[in-house]
């Protein structure tokens, strides 16, 4: 511990620089060391689009500081909450083997860290390397509380692609002119859809396509004839994003911290919670132009969406810079229509896991437990003495198998571990849709959901197949489903209703992409498989925060196995209480 303490200051300085620019792989000590971080949750005033607002941040930084480790490292992140809101931090995509105590979703694995309280996230990164993200997991606090989580390969290891010259982090986010917490609270009160964001951001900057924003533009300065590794992270709240750079193409090499078979593309599609690493090869000679880096949503939502475009600028460094380079034209790339479902599906279908001796796949070939879950929108009735602004005077809701999740007031993990589930949760989450209908056809005329805090229980190491089915109730829409504590394989996907007889014949059980967040196609279905080898309580939810707030979520309880190393670790002594 002492050794890592002395290393830390140097490390942090290098990384602070990294956010705006690049970083070389730090040649720090051997893997398997303990790294200390301190997250002070504080409010600061930030100005964008000519408006200043107070926002919750980590260490007064927006976006938040990068957390960098190597595979096998041990992390101790001390979170001190100085703001009036509750907070928790989720290490999105970290498997947290047997250690749900460090996962973060409030009221699922822990009680929130309340004002003036501290909690130390204590976890080891086992068998994972690549780009992930960390973000708050209490209400909509993650709108401003998020940052990169970068896991470098072990020192004796290398990337399965040519070593990039520089590495760059591209964090996509969503900016609200007003307080995001007030927005969701207002929406949950009135039953209406929440106000949409006012801008998208690249590394916290909206860029020149917005009023009063040209000075807040992300600039990527590159050298000719080099290969850059872009670590692209979608930390937006509610939007799948298309991402492109004019006159340049990418080689996709990793998705959700899993290497993929490299493929070329000019356009990425990235859902909230997803991360992808791409290689950007710069042109042999510095061109006489600059290039827009653009991101804009993909959406088929019937409701209002923020359809604006964030722009950054890619520019080549030249010896004779200054006035000449300022006058260079900026080339703008085309983007697909916002509702381009065919483009989205085509991109998703190209992702394949890289499979070799070092990175074998472990796709369940046989299934012990089958689940079929509908995911989509619905409504709840308006309370008697209120008028509601949701569909037809109701309140918007969302559900999994028609159950809209109700957050308990005590954390499920503690309740389970200490065998005090009574009054906290029920274990009767439906395995199949309670009332089958034509899920992607004419919607039923009754759109009400049921409500409850229900979990599904899995025996240790069960091989699980879960088919997620979008519904057309209140309109088809994509839903990026995120499973905590696990990666899963996408063995199949398609449009319309899943056909349990014929669709499995076309499953890919050889090189399916391995992810922690995957989009259920708008009006379609997604089949995933995984081994339930990580005991604990694991949240699974739509990573659109608006759908999460409306209840499009559930939790799994994975039981302990027989052996001591198949059982949950005991809770840390500083675990918050509620
Ligand atoms: C933010 O701005 C408000 C209003 O101008 C001010 O009262 C407050 O002290 C500022 N907060 C910080 C942390 O600077
Ligand atoms: C937090 O600590 C500050 C400073 O000690 C104190 O003024 C404030 O009342 C505390 N807030 C809560 C909610 O405990
Ligand atoms: C972190 O967790 C390990 C057990 O997994 C424990 O031995 C260690 O003391 C913990 N460290 C801190 C600082 O809590
Ligand atoms: C790197 O070293 C670790 C620990 O010594 C070992 O488990 C791993 O297989 C090595 N990796 C490579 C790619 O050689
Ligand atoms: C949401 O938008 C409406 C209409 O523009 C506005 O009246 C309301 O104050 C906004 N709500 C919040 C919380 O910003
Ligand atoms: C964005 O949406 C607004 C209102 O829904 C619409 O008027 C505008 O044309 C749209 N802009 C683009 C670029 O699609
Ligand atoms: C996308 O939206 C446009 C304009 O609203 C509409 O004309 C078109 O049919 C839509 N395309 C798809 C694939 O839904
Ligand atoms: C109805 O409104 C009254 C007064 O606004 C409030 O006290 C009461 O809790 C409401 N009842 C319900 C069922 O929401
Ligand atoms: C709205 O509610 C009324 C009364 O319950 C019902 O007759 C009507 O079909 C509903 N309309 C829609 C679009 O759901
Ligand atoms: C479901 O609805 C779709 C769209 O209306 C239709 O094409 C399909 O035939 C329906 N399926 C069944 C089984 O009724
Ligand atoms: C809803 O549909 C069912 C049959 O699908 C029908 O019996 C019922 O009358 C309909 N209700 C309304 C309010 O339209
Ligand atoms: C913060 O968490 C505590 C403990 O669960 C809870 O009592 C309190 O209502 C929460 N505060 C807010 C603003 O949600
Ligand atoms: Cu969703």
TrEMBL record:
Residues 1-31 form the signal peptide. It is found in: Secreted, Extracellular space, Apoplast. Pfam families: Cu-oxidase (PF00394), Cu-oxidase_2 (PF07731), Cu-oxidase_3 (PF07732). Binds 4 Cu cations per monomer. Transmembrane segments: none annotated. The keyword Glycoprotein applies. It catalyses: 4 hydroquinone + O2 = 4 benzosemiquinone + 2 H2O. Keywords: Apoplast, Copper, Glycoprotein, Lignin degradation, Metal-binding, Oxidoreductase, Repeat, Secreted, Signal. It comes from the Eukaryota. The keyword Secreted applies. Its cofactor is Cu cation. Its EC number is 1.10.3.2. Residues 43-154, 167-317, 430-560 form the Plastocyanin-like domain. Lignin degradation and detoxification of lignin-derived products. Belongs to the multicopper oxidase family. This is Laccase.
């Amino acid at each position: 511990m002492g050794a890592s303490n002395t290393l830390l200051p140097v490390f942090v300085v290098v990384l602070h620089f990294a956010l705006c620019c690049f970083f070389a792989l730090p040649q720090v000590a051997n893997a398997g060391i303990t790294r200390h971080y301190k997250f002070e949750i504080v409010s600061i005033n930030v100005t964008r689009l000519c408006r200043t607002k107070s926002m919750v941040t980590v260490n007064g930084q927006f976006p938040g500081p990068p957390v960098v480790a190597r595979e096998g490292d041990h992390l101790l992140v001390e979170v001190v909450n100085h703001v009036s809101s509750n907070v928790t931090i989720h290490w999105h995509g970290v498997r947290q083997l047997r250690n749900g105590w460090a996962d973060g979703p409030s009221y699922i694995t822990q009680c929130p860290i309340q004002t003036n309280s501290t909690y130390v996230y204590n976890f080891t990164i086992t068998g994972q390397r690549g780009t992930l993200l960390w973000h708050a997991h209490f209400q909509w606090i993650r709108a401003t509380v998020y940052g990169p989580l970068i896991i470098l390969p072990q020192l004796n290891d290398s990337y399965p692609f040519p070593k990039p010259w520089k590495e760059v982090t591209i964090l996509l986010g969503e900016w609200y002119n007003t307080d995001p917490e007030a927005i969701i609270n207002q929406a949950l009160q009135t039953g209406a859809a929440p106000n949409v964001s006012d801008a998208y951001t690249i590394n916290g900057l909206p860029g020149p396509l917005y009023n009063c924003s040209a000075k807040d533009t992300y600039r990527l300065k590159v050298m000719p004839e080099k290969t850059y590794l872009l670590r692209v992270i979608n930390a937006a709240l509610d939007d799948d994003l298309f991402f492109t750079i004019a006159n340049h193409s990418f080689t996709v090499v990793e998705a959700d911290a899993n290497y993929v078979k490299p493929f070329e593309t000019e356009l990425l599609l990235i859902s909230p919670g997803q991360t992808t690493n791409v290689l950007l090869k710069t042109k042999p000679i510095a061109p006489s132009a600059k290039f827009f880096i653009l991101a804009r949503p993909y959406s088929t939502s019937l409701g209002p969406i923020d359809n604006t475009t964030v722009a950054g600028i890619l520019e080549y460094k030249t010896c004779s810079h200054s006035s000449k380079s300022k006058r260079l034209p900026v080339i703008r790339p085309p983007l697909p229509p916002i509702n381009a479902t065919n483009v989205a599906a085509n991109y998703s279908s190209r992702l394949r896991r890289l499979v070799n001796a070092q990175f074998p796949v472990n796709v369940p070939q046989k299934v012990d437990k089958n689940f079929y879950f509908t995911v989509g929108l619905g409504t709840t009735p308006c309370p008697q003495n209120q008028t509601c602004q949701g569909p037809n005077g109701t309140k918007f809701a969302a559900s999994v198998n028609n159950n809209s999740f109700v957050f308990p007031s005590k954390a499920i993990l503690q309740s389970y571990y200490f065998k005090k589930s009574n009054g906290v949760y029920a274990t009767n989450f439906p395995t199949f849709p309670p009332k089958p209908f034509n899920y992607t056809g004419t919607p039923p005329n009754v759109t009400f959901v049921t409500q409850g805090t229900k979990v599904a229980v899995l025996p240790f190491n069960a091989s699980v197949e879960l088919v997620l089915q979008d519904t057309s109730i209140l309109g088809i829409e994509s839903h990026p489903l995120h499973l905590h504590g696990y990666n899963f394989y996408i063995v199949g996907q398609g449009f319309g209703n899943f056909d349990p007889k014929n669709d499995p014949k076309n499953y890919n059980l050889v090189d399916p992409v391995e992810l922690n967040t995957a989009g259920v196609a708008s009006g379609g279905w997604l089949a995933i498989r995984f081994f339930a080898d990580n005991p604990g309580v694991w949240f699974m939810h739509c990573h659109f925060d608006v759908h999460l707030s409306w209840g499009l979520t559930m939790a799994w309880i994975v039981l302990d196995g027989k052996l001591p190393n198949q059982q949950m670790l005991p809770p840390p002594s500083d675990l918050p209480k509620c």
